[in-house]
Amino acid sequence: MHRITQCLSIGPFASPERGVNLLAAGVTHVLNVSDAPSALSAGAESFAEIAWVPMSDSKRLSRSTTALALDTLHRLVSVPNSHVYVHCIAGMVRSPTILWLYLIACGVSPKEARTWIEKRSPMANAGSSRMVDREHVLLAQMHGLMHYFPHPRGEVIVPFLDSTPTE
């Protein structure tokens, strides 16, 4: 798990074994942006919610999938005291790209959002050109302005300061 902000993390597929570590790290919600359903379950003594927005990392995101992923992430992170883990299969393209777009939607510059993500997760490709282009950045900015301000949790856009990435 690579903690990017105070309440947002990214990483590889959330297997049941990895789920134990995620719970121990304080993760409360999971957003799966892979092309396979989640192997985790929500409920008592587990995650509060597990959401899935299926997508491929080999083609451009549609506007509707982009908006759905951003809105789903916003809903999960808006829960008081939530810590959301965004994952795909390897944690290198889809999850960093969705988190990157979300940070942009919350007013962080594209360059700064990329730096936050790639500093904490060096193998990440935030804003992968296979998935997104300038129009996605504009969509995120406009969508965020229309739907996410004022943000109910300011800590969403505060980078995590611990200098040691966790696995």
Describe the structure.
This protein is α/β, with parallel strands linked by helices and 167 residues long. It has one domain: Protein tyrosine phosphatase superfamily (Protein-Tyrosine Phosphatase, Chain A, Alpha-Beta Complex). It is 37% helix and 11% strand. Strand 1 and strand 2 (8-11) form a beta hairpin. Helix 2 (63-77) packs across helix 3 (94-105), helix 2 (63-77) packs across helix 5 and helix 3 packs across helix 5 (134-147).
Widest beta sheet: strand line-up: 1-2-5-3-4
Q: What's the gyration radius in Å?
A: 14 Å
Q: What is the CATH H-level superfamily?
A: Protein tyrosine phosphatase superfamily
Estimate the global geometry from the Cα principal axes: globular
Q: How many domain units?
A: 1
Which fold does the CATH topology refer to?
A: Protein-Tyrosine Phosphatase, Chain A
Q: Please state the structural category.
A: alpha/beta
The portion of residues forming beta strands comes to 5-15%
The sequence of SSEs as H and E is: EEHEEHEHHH
Please provide the count of β strands: 5
Number of helices, counting only DSSP H or I runs of 4 residues or more = 5
Second rung of CATH, namely the architecture? Alpha-Beta Complex
The largest β sheet comes out as: 5 strands, mixed
- Span between termini: 5 Å
User: Which regions contain 5 or more consecutive residues with pLDDT less than 50?
Assistant: none
Instruction: Please give the CATH class.
Output: Alpha Beta
Oligomeric grouping of the chains: single chain
Helix percentage range: 25-40%
Would you tell me the overall average pLDDT? Answer: 94
